[in-house]
Amino acid sequence: LISGCRHHDRGRQGDCSPHQGEILPPHQHFRSFTPKQALLLQSFSKFCLCSLTMSGLLGSMADVPKDLLAEVKKLEEQFTVPTEKLKQISKHFISELEKGLSVDGGSIPMNPTWVMSFPDGYETGTYLALDMGGTNLRVCEITLTDVKSEFDIIQSKYRMPEELKTGQSDELWEYIADCLAQFIETHHPDHPQSQKIPLGFTFSYPATQNYIDEGILQRWTKGFDIAGVEGQNVVPFLEAALAARNVPIKLSALINDTTGTLIASAYTDTKMKIGCIFGTGCNAAYMENCGSIPKLAHMNLPPDTPMAINCEWGAFDNEHKVLPRTPYDIIIDKDSPRPGQQAFEKMIAGLYLGEIFRLVLVDLHDNKAVHIFENQDIAKLRKAYTLDSSFLSAIEDDPFENLQETSDLFLSKLNLKATRPELELIRRLAELIGTRAARLSACGVAAICMKKGYESCHVGADGSVFNKYPHFKARGAQALREILDWPAKTSTKEEDPIEILAAEDGSGVGAALIAALTLKRVQQGNMAGILNPENFK
C-alpha cells in the first residue's frame, strides 16, 4: 500500500525528491482511503519513509531509457529559467512599462482607466455590475454597507447564446438589456423609473478608453465576431437598448476585469497595490501617479493624482529581446491568429500551456532517435489545442508513484497507452512547463514593485491558472524571492514582504466599486475622463 504513494509536490525547481523525513497530510498520501485508514497508514509510514524515499521516489527515473533521459535533460535546459535570467527579464520589463506610459508608447499598451483612487472602505450605496463573459452574462447588485469594507451581493447568471456571438449587433445589446430588465423586475419590481441605478460594466475585451464611461472595441475575442461593433464605442449601443425598454439604469463606468480585481481587493485589504489575472490570458493593473504618465500630460492633471493603469502586459517582449523562447513557443506564435503579438501571454497563460506540452510530445514522437508511443496512432495528439491547462494540472496532481492517474488520462483523452518511462517524462515535462509559467509571471509582478518602490505589499490575483494549477502560487513566490533578493525566512510562519494572494471578485464587486468611486469624485468636482456628465447627476 505504502509503495503506491507519491510525493505531492515533486515540482520544485530542480528538485524531484521529497524532503527527508517530511510527512504529508493524510489526504495527500492516500486518496483512496477513509480519513481513519489514512491516519493509521500515515503513522505506519513514519517508520518506512526513509526506505521508501531511497527505493521508490528518488529512483523513479532509474528505469528510463537513455534516449528519454537525454531528452528530459534537453527539456530541462530549454524550460528552466535561472535566477539571473529572471532578473534580466524583470529589468527589461520595467523599461517596457515606462515606454508604454510615454507619448510614443510601446508594446505594452499601459491603458489609463480613469479610475482615480483606491476605495477607503467607507463607500456606501447600491450599485449594479454587469459582467459580459464569453459563456455567461452575470448581473450583480452590490450594496456597500455602513460597516467598513463590507458588502452584500445578489447575483444572477444568464447563458450567452452561441448564436448571439456571431449574430447582429442589435440582438446582442437587446438580449443584455432584457437580462438587466429581468433582474430589476425580479429583485425590485416597484423600483421607480425616475431613480436610475448606477451600473459598472465589466467589458473584458480589448478596448480604448478615453473616458471612464466609454469603450471603443478594438477587436472581438472569446468567440465573438459581430459585424459593425469593432472600432465603435459600445456604451451607446447598450444605453439605447436600455432606453427602449425603460430600464432604470445609468452606466457610470466601463471597466476591464483586471482593474476591477485591483479595486475589489483593495476594498477589503489596504495593503493591496496590484491586481493580476493568471487564467486563459494574463494581465495586471496598478495605480500610477499622473505625473509619471507622459501620454496624459496634455490633460494637465495634478502630478500626484493617482490613475489606475490597465497594463495589458501579455504583449511584453513582442520584440523577442529577453524571453527565453523555445522552438515550441516559436511554433505557437507562428500558428496563432496574431503572430508577433502577446509574446509574454503565449508563454504563461492557460490557453497555451497544454499546447506547448502537446507540441513537445509530438516532436519527440516524430524524432526517430527517440522512442515514445511506438506503434501507436497519435492522431488525437496531433490535433492542435486538444489539451488545455487542466490536463497539465491533472498530471501534476497525480499522487501515485506509478502515475496511474496520468496513465488513465492519456488512455481516455488521447487513446495512448504510455509506458512507465514515458509517464515519467510526461510528468517532468508538465512540471517544467508549469514551473516556467509561474516563474515568468513573477517577473511582471517584480517589475511593477521595483518601478513603484514597493518593498512590502499585497498583490491580488485571480484566474484559473492561479487558483487551480498545482504549485503555481508557491513557484511564483519562490521566483519573486529570487528576483528581489529577499533573505532566507527565519521561520515557516514568516510572511514574504510581497505576497500574491487570492483576489476579490473583480468583475462584480470591482465594477460596482468603480461606479461608486466615479460618482463620488464627480460629486467632488473631478470631471476628468467623464464623457457624459448627465449620467452622474
From TrEMBL:
One Gene Ontology biological process: glycolytic process
One GO term describing the cellular component: cytosol
Reactions catalysed: D-fructose + ATP = D-fructose 6-phosphate + ADP + H(+); a D-hexose + ATP = a D-hexose 6-phosphate + ADP + H(+)
UniProt-recorded Gene Ontology molecular function terms: ATP binding; D-glucose binding; fructokinase activity; glucokinase activity; mannokinase activity
Pfam families: Hexokinase_1 (PF00349), Hexokinase_2 (PF03727)
Species for this entry: Colletotrichum incanum
Pathway it works in: Carbohydrate degradation; glycolysis; D-glyceraldehyde 3-phosphate and glycerone phosphate from D-glucose: step 1/4; Carbohydrate metabolism; hexose metabolism
Cited PROSITE patterns: HEXOKINASE_1, HEXOKINASE_2
EC number: 2.7.1.-
Similarity remark: Belongs to the hexokinase family.
Residue ranges crossing the lipid bilayer per the database entry: none
Segments forming domain Hexokinase C-terminal: 273-517
Domain called Hexokinase N-terminal: residue spans: 71-267
Protein name: Phosphotransferase
InterPro entries documented for this protein: ATPase_NBD, Hexokinase, Hexokinase_BS, Hexokinase_C, Hexokinase_N
Keywords, alphabetical: ATP-binding, Glycolysis, Kinase, Nucleotide-binding, Transferase
